[in-house]
UniProtKB/TrEMBL annotation:
Pfam families cross-referenced by the UniProt entry: RecX_HTH2 (PF02631), RecX_HTH3 (PF21981)
Residue ranges of every copy of the RecX second three-helical domain listed in the record: 109-147
KW ATP-binding (keyword) present: no
Protein's name in the database: Regulatory protein RecX
Organism: Acinetobacter wanghuae
Amino acid sequence: MSEAKFPKLLDYEALKQQFGEDDPQTKTSAFSTPVKAEFDPEERLFSDNKEEKKRPGLTGTRLRSYAFAVLTRKEYAKAELIEKLALYADDRDEVITLVDELSRENYQSDQRVAEMMLSSQKRKGKGPNQIKMKLKNKKVDTALIADELKETDWAQQAYELKVKKYGVDVAKEPKLKAKQIRFLMYRGFEMDAIIKAINRKPNED
């Protein structure tokens, strides 16, 4: 993956200084970077005390600080981040404006989310239809990885998965072939790649 397709990430060192790395209650991010917000709206929202179960009503710098704390833990799609922050914010319009700004500055990136999704799902043996569906659920445009989807040899991906599950022999019984087809369809592969995979003979290029 080229550097152009993977823009700058957050300045974690600056965030560590902002939120206090040495606090014993420091939280660990998804990138193994300890981060602690100056407050924890999630703890307040889900407190055992029913009287405390209120929207924290974050605004301004407190909302921005919480947004950075959230983004250090994992990558969020733009639509996901808006919904996440809206749970704790006082004004949804302020959330949308803030997330738009974070997106422009590449602190939030649907491109990164799409590329990470593609990579992780391919490692799990998932086909293009599954990947597109998961991106759609996150409201991420699949066009962001259109080239990568097109360049991937999905027949090879399907064949490797078929071999792992059923071996290298080409199935002759209709029931077994149908079973392999259903298996690969469930994994998100398209029929053209599936037919090539199940009919491919050992050592065949």
